[in-house]
Design brief:
Layout lengths: L1 H31 L11 H10 L3 H12 L3 H12 L3 H13 L28 E7 L2 E7 L4 H12 L3 H10 L5 H11 L2
Antiparallel strand pairs: 1-2
Helix pairs in contact: 2-5, 3-4, 4-5, 6-7, 7-8
């Protein structure tokens, strides 16, 4: 019996050492992994509006170009430099802006009345940018005849499957061709 006691003790010590090494190794691996991008919460639309209001037109354009290209880290850096907010606040703001795209609004521009569907399109004091992307394909429509409400109606038409009506409305409120409008709407419909 004494002859088995020493090998059993050695076996138990080796097993404990292996378990300890595995635990240390897994903790070290967890620390080296980057934290995942947070998912936008229920108040992220409001955060996106507030974040967009802090940007100049050039910063806004550059930030959305980086988001469209999938360069989240560079977009966070641009936002951080533009606003001076902390890293976590910048990360959350960029995630909210990506989830809820915001048009650039100049501080002095007040929203004007929305024309009825039967009236001729109205020209606004600002230029509205609508961006749609799917995979590597990105399309942009920029027009001073679009705003949040009109673009929202176009998106609703596209998502409900009425792509022709959505494309017609988009060409009516912008200076793009019907073919370009259909390509843009095809990205929204999915």
């Amino acid at each position: 019996m004494d002859s088995l006691l020493i090998p059993v003790l050695i076996l138990v010590l080796v097993a404990a050492g292996v378990l300890l090494a595995v635990r240390v190794w897994s903790r070290r691996g967890e620390r080296s992994r980057p934290a995942p991008m947070p998912q936008p919460g229920p108040d992220s639309a409001e955060l996106a509006r507030a974040a967009a209001a802090r940007l100049t037109q050039d910063q806004h354009r550059r930030l959305y170009a980086l988001i469209a290209q999938g360069q989240a880290m560079t977009a966070i850096k641009v936002y951080l430099e533009a606003t001076g907010e902390g890293l976590r606040a910048s990360r959350d703001a960029v995630a909210a802006l990506a989830a809820h795209p915001q048009p650039f609004r100049a501080p002095e521009a007040a929203p004007e009345a929305i024309p009825d569907e039967d009236d001729a399109p109205q020209r606004f004091a600002y230029r509205y940018r609508a961006i749609a992307s799917k995979g590597d394909v990105t399309r942009e429509v920029s027009s001073n005849m679009l705003n949040d409400e009109i673009y929202g109606r176009i998106r609703t038409l596209a998502k409900s499957g009425d792509t022709e009506a959505a494309a017609t409305a988009l060409t009516r409120h912008s200076d793009i061709s019907m073919k370009q409008a259909r390509e843009f709407i095809a990205l929204l419909g999915d």
